[in-house]
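Deviations from the work plan: none for this task. Representative record:
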Amino acid sequence: MPKNTYFNLPQAKKARIFKAAVEEFAKKRFSEASINQIVKNAGISRGSFYQYFNDKEDLYIYMLGEIGKEKLEVIKKVGILNPEADFFSAFLYMIKAALVWAETKPLYGQVAMQMELDQSDFIEKLRGLSDEGFLLLKQLVEKDKKRGLIREDIDSELIVEVFNALMTHFFTKKMYRSGQHDGMLELAEKLVRIVKEGISVQRKK
Amino acid sequence: MPKNTYFNLPQAKKARIFKAAVEEFAKKRFSEASINQIVKNAGISRGSFYQYFNDKEDLYIYMLGEIGKEKLEVIKKVGILNPEADFFSAFLYMIKAALVWAETKPLYGQVAMQMELDQSDFIEKLRGLSDEGFLLLKQLVEKDKKRGLIREDIDSELIVEVFNALMTHFFTKKMYRSGQHDGMLELAEKLVRIVKEGISVQRKK
DNA sequence: AAATAATATGACAATCTTGTCATATGACAT
DNA sequence: ATGTCATATGACAAGATTGTCATATTATTT
């Protein structure tokens, strides 16, 4: 938790520091991110930083919390908008929302990406704290199982993780390279269809 | 390319250095890996290292090449063993072979993992050099399309990448955490079945 | 044995990192 | 104005990193 000295700061300065932190953690992984770089971009002295935060971990956890709050709101909207939607369309809607969100706050998405790629002990511990999105999806899967839409013989958690793995893989790949999101939604639709219907030849509908 | 001074070294010493390099690059990513650590474990002086290799990149590329040679042999066996096998069983056989390989040379697998997680410019450039395995799988998919086993309306490359993404995700995750491979094959079978048949409810066979 | 060539070595410079701390500056109440 | 308290600062220590280089040691050839 940041110290009071940070919270007492004028809004503008807090924002400056926060922005500098986001920019750095979007570029580099936790262990590679440099406090020197952050204080430089924020226009504060190194000494000040340690008067605001205990250390790098402190800042990181705080930043993650703030970003998490925003992200959760995006995800929650899904469940609200159409409670009767099946898992597949709900998932796609969520991707859509995430894309819009990523477009307005691209750095937030990159921070999440860096975290995804980070296997350090510290990050490993942190992960899984804010898995509310995961839970929500799992519930959707289970509802669809009861509705007879999804096969009961496949583990719900595995299903959610498959979707998660695919999205992470393709999104990080494309976004990291191009920085753009064109065709992202179409790609997501293709992937959902693959996992939904399978790739083997079936009797036609 | 390593200098002649390296190749002229007695086999035992070369092996010692190579082993130390593998161990380091299995633990850390390229940018985080330390030459100091390598020379310490190899029992050579820092000065000697730079007499053998131009720099860290030199060593890394060399090591990757050596590992790649071994890996390719494992993959190639798949195509040879049963030329009539469909993509799914061929893929599973490949996983099986990879698991056996990873069990005898676990560090090699970890090196590949670290590389997978590395998005630095240097590694990004290096990636894709040895994509022979990828090509082989793509050919198998296309053969199965013609045989009427796989839907023609899905891009072959996408299919291969989906499999690749899933395996990478679940394997790195499990292997990194536990270091063990129990249940790995069963997990692979589950995943293949998901992508093969889909998760939505179909008419029973 | 002597001269020459190849290799081994660790000290060194230069450059980064984090976290501490004594001091300076500012704000605010008395 | 004066005293008190909160904050800002950059120098500093301690620890990494890579790549270089002059020197010492060993091997080989004459």
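The mean pLDDT of chain B is 87.
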